[in-house]
Amino acid sequence: MRRLAAAPVFSLGFRPLFLAGAGFAALAILIWGLWLYGHWFDPQPAGGMLAWHRHEMPFGFAAAIVAGFLLTAVPNWTGIPGVRGGALIALVIVWLLGRVAWWMPLPVALILALQWAFLPLLAVLLARDLIAAGKRDNYPIVLVLALIAGCQALTLIGLFNDDTGLQRQGVLGALWLIAALMTVIGGRVIPFFIQRGLNRPSAPAAHPLPTRLLLVGSLLTAITFATGLNDVLRPWLAALFALTGSLQILRLIRWHDRGMWRVPLLWSLYLAYGWMALAIWAMAAWHLGLLGQQSLATHALAVGGVGGLILAMIARVSLGHTGRLLQPPKAVVLGFALVLIAAGCRVLLVPFSGLGLGLSVVLWCAAFVLFLRHYTAILLKPRL
């Protein structure tokens, strides 16, 4: 056990959790696609395939990546050594138990407990170090994690009571909270990455008001989903989405630099963030009756925004924190494009052809398999 705890893969949180999250992203969507096309029958997860798919993408896949990123970033912010070794192994095991519990013949209460353990534990670990270091500017990140855990509890209560409406509220609330978290983190790192990646001089600090409005608007948006307000058309919510979407577009305009289109680690982040802005505007259109299916906005966010940002971010972070040049393999650059095209297929083709869904599944899985093919060795080996 000591030898395992000392292995490079358990030296920082991003290593095992990026591997686990990327592997699960490909496996979970493959299973979902096989079931949708009638090629998966047994075993079935507790609560059924739809409940499993809804829950596992935000609370399994995205939660693992968010955890890996924050467990690596918070030590840099605080100067306090991060979770590693045996403690990190235990945290990864908690995450794995949550994924396996769906498929085990266990009492429902135990399944729910195993599902819910990971996010509260992560929030406590991060809050401990942020409070010890007095990093008050980063307290909102712990708040967002706690709210995501609350949405997961809402989802699991809905599962326990066979209430699909409650499940949906919890999942959508969590998805838009993850978008809020990416808005906060993206607002910090994307302009920094562009500046460093293109050797540009430091830009003057932006006025803090738009950023604060964007954070508040993002949190309010997530709350409207968690409380079920987005179940019916509400013109006043269109105004909230339009305001938040406008602020996101202003960010994209401010960040734009023609040089970034030559750098895959920059355009991949930028375009994925653009999908997130598009999803917000799509929700505004839905509330005005201009978009027929709300699920198109949801999947624009989930596949293009969250999926695209995650793949681009883990590719860059993995290189930077292992001491390697910030030049991803060409196959992984192809993966960046594939996940963005997968979003286009899910949003633009599905309303017209059932083949769009299958194509989206194949492209998504291929993108994350390419990441695993080229990054597994990097994440398992010591820092250069």
Automatic annotation (TrEMBL):
<dbReference type="Pfam" id="PF05940">
    <property type="entry name" value="NnrS"/>
</dbReference>
<dbReference type="InterPro" id="IPR010266">
    <property type="entry name" value="NnrS"/>
</dbReference>
<feature type="transmembrane region" description="Helical">
    <location>
        <begin position="57"/>
        <end position="74"/>
    </location>
</feature>
<keyword id="KW-0472">Membrane</keyword>
<feature type="transmembrane region" description="Helical">
    <location>
        <begin position="139"/>
        <end position="160"/>
    </location>
</feature>
<feature type="transmembrane region" description="Helical">
    <location>
        <begin position="296"/>
        <end position="319"/>
    </location>
</feature>
<protein>
    <submittedName>
        <fullName>Short-chain dehydrogenase</fullName>
    </submittedName>
</protein>
<feature type="transmembrane region" description="Helical">
    <location>
        <begin position="108"/>
        <end position="127"/>
    </location>
</feature>
<feature type="transmembrane region" description="Helical">
    <location>
        <begin position="172"/>
        <end position="193"/>
    </location>
</feature>
<feature type="transmembrane region" description="Helical">
    <location>
        <begin position="213"/>
        <end position="230"/>
    </location>
</feature>
<feature type="transmembrane region" description="Helical">
    <location>
        <begin position="12"/>
        <end position="37"/>
    </location>
</feature>
<feature type="transmembrane region" description="Helical">
    <location>
        <begin position="265"/>
        <end position="284"/>
    </location>
</feature>
<feature type="transmembrane region" description="Helical">
    <location>
        <begin position="236"/>
        <end position="253"/>
    </location>
</feature>
<feature type="transmembrane region" description="Helical">
    <location>
        <begin position="86"/>
        <end position="102"/>
    </location>
</feature>
<keyword id="KW-0812">Transmembrane</keyword>
<keyword id="KW-1133">Transmembrane helix</keyword>
<feature type="transmembrane region" description="Helical">
    <location>
        <begin position="355"/>
        <end position="375"/>
    </location>
</feature>
<feature type="transmembrane region" description="Helical">
    <location>
        <begin position="331"/>
        <end position="349"/>
    </location>
</feature>
